[in-house]
Task: structure prediction
Amino acid sequence: MADITFLGHAGFLLQTQTHSIAIDPFLTGNPLAKVKPDAIKCDYILLTHGHGDHVGDTVAIAKNNNATVIANYEIATWCERQGLTAHAMHIGGAFNFPFGKVKLTIAHHGSGFDTGDEMIYMGNPAGALITVEDKTIYHAGDTGLFYDMKLIGEMNDIALALLPIGDNFTMGIDDAVKAVEFLSAKLAVPMHYKTFDIIDVNPDEFIRKVGSIGKEARILQVGESISL
Ligand code: NI
Ligand code: MN
Result:
């Protein structure tokens, strides 16, 4: 059994029987976050892209835990330059880690990291298919709707889809509902909303609209977990 806890925004903590994987751990500066970076215990950190609201507290958390960062080649190289251990991957590639399998998927978005002085190139943004204990979780990353989600759904039995709904930077609600249909996901959980005023959409509308196409979605409160 795997437990997934919502950390707020696009951040989740995935816990298997043996390992803990933090995904896009943006806590410092996240008005909805309920835990401090020091509270995160993990073996791996999976990053979808290089934006600050996804890289977040990666450097501190990785150092605290001696955790390995899994990300695209450009982000992995940057992490190594910060003194971290990283495993570089790229879109379309899968790798079997001790906790399970990760495959990076496309995502239509940007990926630059703003240091305050310059914008560092962080490769292409990605989503991730994470298979742990025979259950596949799809974290879409930040993305607009794309038709290949249909292919992702055909080739994978998705137990849980984590989908951005906040609009402006990513899919909005109606596109995310279409994504649930394309993915044939058993359960969808909305993310990347409410953190900032510009993405303050009502997740109840997403739940209702997903229900109207005969699919299931549920809201995870920050700090709340579900078991797969
Ligand atoms: Ni982004
Ligand atoms: Mn984002």
The longest strand covers residues 100-106. Residues 173-183 form the longest helix (11 residues). Residues 49, 51, 54, 109, 142, 169 surround nickel (II) ion (ligand 1) (CB under 6 Å).
